[in-house]
Each structure stands twice: as C-alpha cells, then as structure tokens.
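Justification of resources, computational component.

The compute hours requested in this renewal are based largely on the per-chain cost of generating structure records like the one below. Each record pairs the submitted sequence with a full structure-token output. That output is archived, and it is also reused by downstream analysis tasks.
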Amino acid sequence: MTTRRDVMLGGAALAAASALPAMAADRPQSVLGVAQTALGHYFRKQRGDNPNLRGPADPFATLDYVRSLGAGGVQMALPLDTDVKKLRRRLEHHKMFFEGDIRLLDKPGDDTAGFEKGLRMFKELGAPCVRTVCFVGRRYENFTSLQQYKDWKANSLAVLEVCVPIADKVGIPLAMENHKDRVVDEEVEVLKKFSSANFGALVDFGNNISMCDDPVEVITKLAPYAKSCHIKNMAVQNYADGFLLSEVLFEDGFLDIPALWAVVKKSNPKVLATHELITRDPLKVPVLTDKYWVTWPDRPAKYLADTLRLVNTNASKKPLPMVSTLSQEAQFQAEESNNIRCFEWARKALV
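The structure output for this chain reads:
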C-alpha cells in the first residue's frame, strides 16, 4: 500500500512538487524552524545518486515536507538557479520564515561572484540573515599542529575581510556559527573585529561544550551579537578518552532551553528560533588525549576540570541515541520523529 511518505519522497512527486499545493498540513505549525543539518537523512533521499549537492535537491519539496511536520521555518542553502519568486510564494503560502545558508570563500583571492549572487538571492527571498561557518570540521580532529591552526586562523580572517564587505554591499547579515573552531572568547574577538551591522553570530547552544567552554557562558557572551540561533539540547556521558556529546530531544538534555533562549531574545528580540537536532551517533570528544590540546597548549587546566565536572554532574542515565546500526530507512524515520517532537515541544515551551 502506498503511504503519504512514499508519495512525498518518490522521484515523480519531487519533480512535480514545485506546483503550488493545497494548504493542508498534517500538524499545527510551531514557532520553531529547522536547520538543514537536521534534515540530513531526508536530503539523502532527495539527492539519490548526487551526494555532492549542498542543501536540498528540491527546495520546494523540502518546504512542503518540513511544513507537514509542523515547522515554522527553515534555514538552508539553495541552488543558485532557484526560482526565487516562486519559492517566496511558497514560503508565504505556508506562512514560514526562511534563513539562508552560504559557504564562505575558501581563500581571499577566490572569485566572489557566486557568493554575492547567493546573498542577493537570499535577500530577495526576504531572509533576515544568512548562516555561515568559517570551518567545516572539528578543531581537535582536523589539526595536528598549532601551526596548522594558526594558518587556518589567518586565512579565515582574510576571507572574512573579503566577505563581510560584500554582505554590507548587498545589505544582508552574515550569521557566523560557533562551529567547533574557536573557543568563545576567540569567537567574540572576531565578532568585535568586524564592526558591521551585517555581521554577527549564529549562537549554537551545544557546539562549544566540545571545546571545554561552559554552555551558559557561551550563550551569554555571544547573545549580544546574535543574528540567528541553533537551539538544541545536549546529553553527555563519559568514555575512556573523554566524553560523548549528543544532540537529543529537548526534554532529554541537561540544558535549560527556555532560559537560554530568553537570554538570546533579550539581546535581539528579532532572532528566530531554529533547531538543529542532528540524528546521528554521539560525538567522541577526546579531552584526555594529547592530540586534543595540540592547538591550544596554554589553555588553563581549569577548562578541562570544569568540563569534566559538568559531564559527571549531568551524565545521561539513559543510553545516548545510536543510529549508525539502523537501515537508511530507519535512520530517516528516526530523524523525522525527532523533528516532529522538536516542533511539538516548542509549541508548548517557547514564547
């Protein structure tokens, strides 16, 4: 028997999904949006044999899909040939907000035409900001020497020197996520360096736990610069080389999400709520290994001690979610359930 999901995710339906649908959503709409990183298993279904796409293969189908789950908005990258007027009509039809997602230049001398075109596309869509990151990866995994990190740091600042003026020219803010690249004080230093109304922070609630930063301190320090937000709750457990870190359902983590969200909203009442529960195995944060500390040899031991105390105090009493042993379809179903439950939670808990 063909299910609604089969119809929605089938190739023929994806090709036809750009036609304006009837306004019929399965679930009440939440104030909470969803980041594209929380849709990885859905995107794999969309992409099929084209895994090199960043973001959705079909943004129209994606809007219809996340609205059917209860989403109030979405944050994602788009192909540069997207029919912007048509997509904006679809957003208005679903009464959804939209935030862009764009990749910075790799080097300061790279061609800027595609970057500027992407920003202009997001502005035409009415996006209040565009999420970006300086680094894709994890500092403690990607770099094997302090010099490697210093080289990356210099390049990333040079790239921002090129990209921020383009955002100024277009008139749309870049929201730089704290993305396991800098500790919070380093992040604030960069934000202060660029005194532009079109450059600020995407405040991620959980990432910097892996950097031995206190999560409440991270949010408090980044909130004055907030343009966007990745709301998520976290669970932790010890393992031999350090601790495990996992995005979990809001009700299962140790962070006080409503209180932390209030801190961000107080600094910028216009910030929109977007969740980023990535359905995956727990991340291993090897804080008890030498390699972990190679890029910050002078970081005080207090940060490690405080983080281990936080893990021990808040260690999850239930197993952390594991999905890698599941079939691809079961992983998709787990992700879909997580997204639905996030939207349901936010309808009751977020104001």
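The CA atoms of residues 2 and 35 lie 29 Å apart. The two ends are 41 Å apart (CA to CA).
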